[in-house]
Amino acid sequence: MEIINTIAALKMLLEPLKQAQQKIAIVPTMGALHKGHVSLIAAAKQQADIVVCSIFVNPTQFTDVKDLEKYPRPLEHDIQMLEDAGCQVVFMPSVKEMYPGAEEWHIDLGNAEFLLEGEFRKGHYQGVTQIVKKLFDAVNPDLAFFGQKDFQQVLMIKKMVATFNLPVQIVSCPIIRDADGLAMSSRNIHLTPADRQHALILSKTLQFVKEHFQQYSIPVLLEKATEMLQSVNGVELDYFTIANGETLLPESNKNAENLVALVAAKVGETRLIDNILLN
Question: What is the pTM for the complete model shown?
């Protein structure tokens, strides 16, 4: 496994492979890797010849400096996980490498940018699309793999790819959960044992909505879901919605295609998100 720190060295390694018609995949991460990330590497290996995993804690997508400072960075652990997963290339640039000078970035991501996560983390998706565009420019991948847990993020990246007409296929992979149902997240490390028990209500509520989707109307499902989430101590609900999976606008028609239930809540001091596809 090669560990590379500069864009120039990365291009020197990858361009001959690209010219030789080898398929290149990228799995962008901010490190603090878990089995969810490993599942993305595994999916990438099935569809590409070369898998590049990037580890870069991107400052422009954090709306709170404290959140950036406390983001976990267990590099040795991450390198070992990638080695075990059979990743071929790790790209670990410095902030200076990715942002050598002051720059302006703003693209039209549509109304969905300002909904849900966009409402709670203003400017977040501008930062996400900014760094993903830089990573795509550095790697020139055929495929890019992201987790479904960050459902809104995948939509925003697809919008960015369409805006720049980039020749990369975005692949969204299923959420990986612990045995108790909790969606794997780098942030779970911050949960106390009590928080972790409380956090299970997120996946339980989503599962309840999916299992009872035919039985109740959407307004009733929303009401029951909100009751469930608010019944657990230490869980501060930001939103629970059943939305159109393309626009993220609330949907009241159960026969609409591509419905998704999305939830965000603060559990103790840690903010978690989760979602489930409904049809």
Answer: 0.96
